[in-house]
Specification:
The chain has 198 residues and is mainly β. It has one helix spanning 179-184; strands at residues 8-9, 22-25, 31-32, 45-50, 55-58, 71-76, 80-83, 96-98, 107-109, 122-124, 129-132, 142-147, 168-174, 195-197. A six-stranded parallel beta sheet has the order 1-3-5-7-9-11, with no helix packed on it.
Length: 198
């Protein structure tokens, strides 16, 4: 249990702690450093808190290779969340991602953030998603339903999702009055056949 006096978890802080099963990250923490929990193969769930009106950043490869991780919850009332490159890459068992509904200044998901997370079948990115990076939700197995609740398409990138194959299905759900806008927007138009309104 990390005390409330801590504001930053540094680079490689718990890297390779393969027997670490649970961790409580208090709202005082606003930055989780690069590879801070990389390779913690027994870690099963994470709750990340942050103070109201504070930015939260999950660093590059922060939880990469946490192969037993099933649930990630951002218990958060702040104004911005940034999930950096490869932050949860290779979290093969990750099935639940909870993002708060109110993030006034935006949610930013960088390249390969959830690469290979084949058990993550439904992701609600809310109304404040601003950008999705290359390979952010790329996987080679499983179904994926993504909900974007903003009428303005977030900044996209090439291959942010894998177009459906024999082993992958994809649905992108957006506000019904914005379907055509998404289908005409750079990078989103690559997935035009899989964009539906709600």
């Amino acid at each position: 249990t990390i005390p409330n006096s801590v504001s930053t978890i540094g680079t490689n802080a718990f890297n390779g702690c393969s027997n670490l099963e649970t961790i409580t990250i208090p709202e005082s923490v606003s930055y989780i450093g690069e590879s801070a929990f990389e390779g913690c193969t027994s870690l099963t769930q994470i709750v990340v808190g942050a103070k109201n009106n504070a930015a939260m950043s999950v660093g590059i490869k922060a939880f990469k290779g946490c192969t037993a991780l099933k649930s990630v919850k951002f218990n958060y009332g702040g104004y911005q969340i940034t999930i950096k490159d490869s932050a949860f890459e290779g979290c093969l068992m990750l099935s639940t991602l909870t993002i708060p509904s109110a993030i006034s200044s935006g949610l930013y998901i960088n390249s390969r953030a959830f690469y290979g997370c084949g058990e993550l079948t439904e992701v609600d990115l809310g109304a404040y998603i601003k950008s999705i990076g290359t390979y952010a939700f790329y996987r080679t197995i499983g179904s994926l339903k993504v909900t974007c609740r903003t009428s303005t398409p977030p900044t996209g990138a090439s291959q942010m999702f894998l177009a459906p194959t024999a082993t992958v299905t994809l649905e992108i759900s957006v506000p019904s009055n914005s379907v055509n806008t998404y289908k005409a927007t750079l990078y989103w138009r690559d997935y035009a056949n899989y964009i539906v309104g709600y």
